[in-house]
Amino acid sequence: MVNLTEITDESTICIVCKSYAPHSCGGCKQVHYCNKLHQKEHWKQHKSECRAFEVKSNEEVGRYLVASRDLNGGEKILVENPVAFGPKHVDPTPVCLGCYKPPHSVARCLKCFWPVCDPKCPGLTDPNHHGAECLVLSLNRCLALQPSGFRYEIITPLRCLLLQKRNKKKWQQIINMEAHTNKRGVSTDVYKFFEERVVSHLTDQYLSKLEEGALPHCSKDVIHRICGILDVNGVEIMAGGDIELIALYPTMYLMEHNCVPNTAYYFDPDFRVVVKPSIKISKGEHLSTTYTHVLWGTDNRREHLKENKYFSCKCTRCKDRTELGTYISALKCHGLPGQSEFCGGWQLPEDPLHEKSNWTCDKCSATLSYDEAKNLVNMLAMEVEKIVQDRPSVEKIIEFLNKLEQLLHPHHFHCYEVKHLLIQLYGHQDGFSHNDLTMEQINQKIDICRDLLSINKILDPGYSRLSLYTAVLMYELHLALTELQSRGKQSDNLTDEAKQLVEETIKILEHEPANSPGSELRTIAIISLDKLKKV
Ligand SMILES: C[S@@+](CC[C@H](N)C(=O)[O-])C[C@H]1O[C@@H](n2cnc3c(N)ncnc32)[C@H](O)[C@@H]1O
């Protein structure tokens, strides 16, 4: 029978001498020491980094983080390892459970028979990766011999459950996270979904085969709670290629949501997270991140947050009809019925914090119902999705864009997406290489890039969430400026700007995971910068 207590605990390491470190800094709890002497020795260096924030709480948000001193863009305010991580509990990517690379088509773990990259993958016996859960998965090897015997959704919940034996502190950290269980009752769709996909399968196929008392807390309620905790607090990690994982971090999860976040984060190859301010943060300000997509309109963002994170966002961007002057949700006003001339105004939600607000024009008295506005945007969403998937000719995209701009503000998120596609095809599609473009087309590409960059600057001032979008815009803008130069539009300013744009592209993509589109663009940008320097 499996003895789960035999699996060893991790130790923390002294920052000074790398030996076992049972003490942590009382201020930030982020740095560990073997003894008081090393802590004292390290204080001179540590004091400027210590205690970047404190934990506070209020009724509306629960716990949140507040800057305990003025914070500058570059500094690391939090570096921490995950308490648990693994394949996503919803739509997981099949991975080798030892190293999270794609599994080999026939290689199997020799104990539990789950797919792996190589039976000798070191992570398979490491309890911080596959080692612990392998003991439980081995209890049902017969299932692993069936073609659909691997339900990756259960892995991360199982890893969380196993912490009650392996590391009580981490177990407490997880189980104390918010799960919004009261909004995920038995009759809800979310409950039914997890009951079917995770809870029953994990219980019936594996946990029921454990010795009685091997895992004291493994009832269906506890597993549902863990699924809620992963939904509400889990952070998605792009682990290279198309692989996405999910992780729970012991402090980072306390950061509240804001639709214009003031922090950015990235992961190192061991999934340690590093959080930095993306803009200057003054003492007393709340530290925030974004739980949703920055380029969605207010209605979509708030709906997503309500459904998945169980709160109604009331941030400055959500409160403002124009979304900080970007007009990213605005529709073109077509005036009052019977009116032949356009008033030149924009239809915006009358009260964006009201779930089904009417839309009113900012110039005339024309009004749209919530449903009329929503139906129009949803109908166009399908057309935009098709265009983005099919990537038709540049001519077709321009034609579609003209149609969109008859109905929407040129900054509307649908127009944004189509324009972002257009600037990647202008200069690269057959017959539209930069050489082939007319001056009008090059100038159009330049104008679109500048316009979209100005939106990104407002909605994501520190490039924390739109790094790839921004980097593509900067790189494409540099290509268009370089083409202008090559046509004899000599100007030192153009060269300087092109160089700065490539330098910025490289910087923005600094922490992109290997083999991702971001890291590929970064490599291309490094080569381009080299060429520009030679010119
Ligand atoms: C990842 S947790 C953050 C930590 C949480 N406040 C706690 O005390 O455990 C996400 C939850 O915090 C709350 N929250 C985060 N940002 C919020 C915001 N801007 N407004 C209201 N509630 C928020 C919501 O309950 C949300 O589901």
Description:
It is globular and about 75 Å long. Among the domains are: 1-50, no CATH class; 83-244, no CATH class; 372-533, Serine Threonine Protein Phosphatase 5, Tetratricopeptide repeat, CATH 1.25.40. The longest helix has 21 residues, at 370-390. It is α+β, with helices and mostly antiparallel strands and 535 residues long. It has a 4-stranded antiparallel beta sheet with strand order 13-14-15-16. 40% of the residues lie in helices and 11% in strands. Helix 13 (439-459) packs antiparallel against helix 14. It binds S-adenosylmethionine (SAM). Residues 60-64, 177-178, 180, 232-233, 253-254, 256-257, 309-311, 313 line the site of S-adenosylmethionine (SAM).
Topology:
Layout (H helix, E strand, L loop, with lengths): L22 E2 L7 E2 L2 H11 L6 E6 L3 E6 L10 E3 L3 E4 L43 H7 L3 H4 L10 H12 L1 H8 L13 H17 L14 H14 L1 E4 L5 E5 L7 E2 L5 E5 L5 E5 L10 E2 L8 H12 L6 H4 L11 E2 L13 E4 L9 E3 L5 E2 L1 H21 L3 H14 L5 H13 L13 H21 L7 H20 L5 H17 L8 H18 L1
Parallel strand pairs: 9-12
Antiparallel strand pairs: 1-2, 3-4, 5-11, 6-8, 7-8, 10-11, 13-14, 14-15, 15-16
Ligands bound, unique: S-adenosylmethionine
> What is the gyration radius calculated from CA atoms?
26 Å
Tally of DSSP β-strands: 16
Classify the oligomer.
single chain
* Main pleated-sheet profile: 4 strands, antiparallel
What is the global morphology?
globular
Percent of residues in helices:
25-40%
